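At this stage, I wrote out one protein's amino acid sequence and its backbone structure tokens, and that material follows here:
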Amino acid sequence: MSQVIVITGASSGFGALAARALAQAGHTVYATMRDTRGRNAPQVEKAKAYAAEHGVDLRTAEMDVQSDASVEAAVAQIINEAGRLDVIVHNAGHMSFGPAEAFTPEQYAELFDINVLSTQRLNRAALPHLRRQGKGLVVWVSSSSTRGGTPPYLAPYFAAKAAMDSLAVSYASELTRWGIETAIIVPGAFTKGTNHFAHSGSPADTDRAAEYNQGPYADVPDRALKGLAALEPPDADAASVAEAIVRVVDLPHGKRPFRTHIDPSQDGAEVVNGVADRVRAEMFRRIGLEDLLSPTVA
């Protein structure tokens, strides 16, 4: 059944791949991004060309996930054009690389704004529509770093992703009685096929960073990045994350897995998440709220 889907951060990487894959699967997809008339104008044209070439319903919309007004305007546009909204895909994110101490508090705040608060802005704008429909799906693109191996120099990103994942888990049980399902997608460290590492931020306090990079940690940046790349199998493909999102969206309502891991490097997140999610389910059973583990099906 065709769904109306909004994806954040869809100018490149997992977002762009998922937007195309979902449109190819027969859904109406709004690939959102900021600065559609400026920096991302070429990405808008690419999306239009893809839609025309493949005969799919792939659309773009302006959305700056750091702006309440921009997010609300994008959701209003989708409802006005499509008449409804069925699926939210929280994908927008930004990475940083460097010693944790060298990032300023303001940099941490900005990274949390992009990776965490953005989801709250979209939820507040979109969930009222899904709740009125009595049915919907919220997809969160998390990271294996929230519970798997965590190499050094990625602290702000890891912390933000962990916060987003925790928010997703809390939201899940608060939406089931509205008929809204939650699916958490957990990609591993794909070093190719996305712009995460290429566009990652760096510490603003360069003097503090230099103390690390010219001191006992001088070898860490190179070894960390090369080590991550070495763990990744040669056939690892970022498109597999998009394919996993399509599979989850296309499953019947109420039958979707709570988590889906796509981790070619097998960093251990699936094992730890498995334990954490079982503990969560057991707690809900013990306090008499087991029904919140599954969405109400109309």
The chain has a mean pLDDT of 94. The first helix runs from residue 13 to 24. The first strand starts at residue 4 and ends at 7.
